[in-house]
């Protein structure tokens, strides 16, 4: 999400590793990924529609305000000084459903909490998010199916929008980053709750934590909505414990031995499931109540603004 108007990207045997260092239990179904490609196509279609509505040549006048790539006609981009990501104007994004606190709270346009996920500030923003979605999402959908991955994507995007609205109330925000971070969070909780089926556990955990840390750190740069990232990540992290639980290693084999049948799920998986459900329901409920009461999250957390932009000698926030 962003900008402050710009952004907020078959069966396997035990011992056979894939790119994410874990092994699937012998009874796992390998799904065909179609939802993630469909989401990518939908985002591309929405961006084209936004650029059609934007119609830069018709709205920009003056020698010093030339549209970028004018040969594209009404699909040409706003001047780079206005939008360096090669995209539409802020007013067009707002018109098409960008997240804006005042419209959500005071004009009862709660639908913007979801519509902003399908908008992007520019072609660079769009391509970055869609490449990340393909890399992360297809693998998850192949292993867990479109229903669970689709729920994580949408609910995480909503969680990111809610947190963004609570803390960034003077700007608009667009992008699928909250939903993408939700998938990253779900990958982490899936690793933790399904710990027994992983080979190279430490390598998997360190790799995933490194990727998450780098992406969250980049979110502290100017013009990036890191609150959407954090909100999406926390939502997806909780959802992973609920939706991505696998039978513990050895359960399938133990079913043939009736005298020593192993529990399908371990006690710690049940415990994580319950805690995650409680945190998810309570967290989203409290955040929604605060949002529609018009609360400003910065008043309750004086230092939280540093999470979205950390000022240095090189830039201001």
Could you characterize the architecture of this molecule?
With 317 residues, the chain is mainly alpha-helical. 54% of the residues lie in helices and 1% in strands. The chain has 13 helices and 2 strands; from the N terminus they run H-H-H-E-H-H-H-H-E-H-H-H-H-H-H. It has a two-stranded antiparallel sheet. The longest helix is centred in the C-terminal third of the chain and has 26 residues. The radius of gyration is 21 Å and the shape is globular. Keywords: Hydrolase, Membrane, Protease, Serine protease, Transmembrane, Transmembrane helix. It is an enzyme of class 3 (hydrolase). It catalyses: Cleaves type-1 transmembrane domains using a catalytic dyad composed of serine and histidine that are contributed by different transmembrane domains.
The average pLDDT value, as a whole number, equals 86
Helical/strand content category = mainly alpha
Q: State the major sheet.
A: 2 strands, antiparallel
Q: What portion of residues is helical?
A: 40-55%
Put simply, the count of helices is 13
Record field, number of beta strands: 2
The low-confidence parts are: 2-6, 9-26
Distance between the termini: 16 Å
The helix/strand order is HHHEHHHHEHHHHHH
**What strand line-up does the widest sheet have?**
1-2
């Amino acid at each position: 999400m962003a900008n402050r108007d710009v952004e907020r990207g078959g069966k396997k045997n035990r011992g056979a590793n894939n790119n994410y260092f874990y092994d699937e239990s012998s009874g796992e179904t390998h799904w065909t990924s179609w939802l993630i490609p469909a989401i990518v196509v939908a985002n591309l279609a929405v961006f084209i529609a936004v650029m059609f509505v934007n119609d830069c040549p018709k709205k920009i006048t003056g020698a010093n305000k030339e549209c970028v790539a004018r040969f594209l006609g009404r699909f040409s981009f706003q001047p780079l000084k206005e939008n360096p990501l090669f995209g539409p104007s802020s007013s067009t994004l707002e018109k098409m459903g960008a997240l804006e606190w005042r419209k959500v709270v005071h004009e009862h346009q709660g639908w913007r909490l979801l519509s902003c996920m399908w908008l992007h500030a520019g072609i660079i923003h769009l391509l970055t998010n869609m490449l990340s979605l393909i890399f992360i999402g297809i693998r998850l959908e192949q292993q867990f199916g479109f229903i669970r991955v689709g729920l994580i994507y949408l609910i995480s995007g909503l969680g990111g929008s809610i947190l963004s609205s609570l803390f960034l109330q003077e700007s608009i925000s667009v992008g699928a980053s909250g939903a993408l971070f939700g998938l990253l969070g779900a990958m982490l909780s899936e690793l933790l709750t399904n710990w027994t089926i992983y080979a190279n556990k430490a390598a998997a955990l360190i790799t995933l934590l490194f990727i998450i840390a780098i992406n969250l750190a980049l979110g502290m740069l100017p013009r990036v909505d890191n609150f959407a990232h954090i909100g999406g990540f926390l939502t997806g992290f909780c959802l992973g414990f609920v939706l991505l639980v696998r039978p513990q290693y050895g359960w399938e084999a133990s079913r043939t031995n009736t005298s020593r049948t192993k529990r399908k799920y371990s006690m710690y998986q049940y415990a994580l499931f319950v805690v995650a459900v409680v945190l998810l329901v309570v967290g989203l409920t409290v955040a929604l109540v605060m949002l529609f009461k018009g609360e400003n999250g910065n008043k309750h957390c004086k230092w939280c603004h540093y999470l979205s932009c950390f000022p240095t000698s090189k830039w201001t926030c």
